[in-house]
Amino acid sequence: MVILASASPRRRDLLALITPEFEVAVSGADESCDIADPRKMVRFLAEKKAASVAQDYPDETVIGADTVVEAGGEVFGKPADFEDARRMLRALSGNVHFVHTGVCVTCGGRKITEAFTTKVFFRPLDPQEIEEYLAQENVMDKAGAYAIQGSAARFVEGIEGCFFNVVGLPVSGLYGMLKKLDQV
């Protein structure tokens, strides 16, 4: 059985594209981290989440994931509040940023961990657009305070890399990891 160590409904939907049969066991891992490099950070946190759940499911395939946004040398996770979300969206406005997702798959004592990156181009946003967006979209559980698959799609001029990585789970990359472990 595949176990997804995530409470994210988006990750559940994306994992269902790979395997329709899986369970969710939310990780209780401490997500604090002092690693500055965002790619190393997401790998570390994905491993923590997978390891936390794998303790209870040692014979199952466990998937942990973590996503952050990197813009202008700053790393954005989930916003702390609406002012933090405004700050993030202002920083992304008219700029290029990177979405990094770390994925860890454990299976019978074996472990594969990778980081996937997608480059995202945002068009300039005026303050009114930011306020309207924050009023209509729940951004508090989204790294960088936006959902590319939601109404923030209108802000995205283009991407380089995996679209699904920006949503929260790099489907093709994860599929490749599962194949390496003979789990699909």
Could you explain the architecture of this structure?
With 184 residues, the chain is of the alpha/beta class. It has a single domain (2-180), classed as Alpha-Beta Complex (Maf protein), CATH 3.90.950.10. The chain has helices spanning 9-15, 38-54, 82-92, 127-136, 163-167, 171-180, and strands at 2-4, 22-24, 61-71, 74-76, 96-107, 110-122, 156-160. Strands 1, 2, 3, 4, 5, 6 and 7 form a 7-stranded mixed sheet that branches. Helix 3 (82-92) crosses helix 4. The N and C termini lie close together (11 Å). Its cofactor is a divalent metal cation. It is found in: Cytoplasm. The record marks 10, 67, 149 as: Important for substrate specificity. Its main location: cytoplasm. It is an enzyme of class 3 (hydrolase).
Number of strands: 7
* Mean pLDDT value: 96
| End-to-end Cα distance | 11 Å
H and E string:
EHEHEEHEEHEHH
The name of the CATH topology is Maf protein
Poorly predicted parts: none
Beta-strand residue fraction:
25-35%
In short:
Helices cover 33% and strands 27% of the residues.
Question: What is the fold's blueprint, element by element?
Answer:
Elements: E1 2-4, H1 9-15, E2 22-24, H2 38-54, E3 61-71, E4 74-76, H3 82-92, E5 96-107, E6 110-122, H4 127-136, E7 156-160, H5 163-167, H6 171-180
Parallel strand pairs: 1-2, 1-3
Antiparallel strand pairs: 3-4, 3-5, 5-6, 6-7
